[in-house]
Amino acid sequence: MQRFRDMPIKWKLTVIILVTSGTALLVASACFLTYDQLSFRKAMQGKVQTLARVIGENSTAAVSFGDSEVATRHLAALEQEPNVLSATLRDRRNNVVGSYVRDGNALGACPKNEEWTDVAYERGVLCVWEPVILEGDLIGSLCIGYSLRAVRLRLASHTTVVLLILLASLAVAWILADRLQAQVSEPILHLTTTADRVSREKDFTLRARGESKDELGTLVKGFNSMLDQIHAHEVELRHYQDRLRD
Fold it and tell me: What pTM does this model have?
């Protein structure tokens, strides 16, 4: 903080503008990324639930008769969905009727769920349970394990875009701050230089330039008025000294 206090006012104004702009952009970017992730997860969850509902409706006969071959064949259609890691079809007693695991990897396999209708995120996998209903009766459930890789890739790509936009915005803010701060720093710098010359040269005829009508303009007018009074007193004192010498 002491280093900031000792900085020239030009750099103080620039730093304040950049910090304010950067903070606002960071908050806005964080809100955007959070909203995008939540909405994308919700859309993905709805997609998986719809997919599970369709597969479950087509597998009612296989679940009713406990036909594992037909159930497995229905679940094999999920291979067309690259993000589906596994699927498990169970009957009303929670016994496995058919299953599908992509590339023999059981990492995305959903755990057993007694409630049959639920959504959970486990180990980077979205697990969706949908009931299998036949003529209004619950006859089983279908569980699909969906990879969250798309969510991570979307987050990484959007974060990269946001960072690039943030850097570009800060660069523009730097250019604008460098030009706009001169409207404040240059009158103050000129006033400081004039005060220093008056102090060193004892020349009370010097005047600071001030054309604005803001607080800086008032300060410059007050400084010049003070010099006018000092100069008037100095002239009067010289006249008095001359009269004493005479």
Answer: 0.68
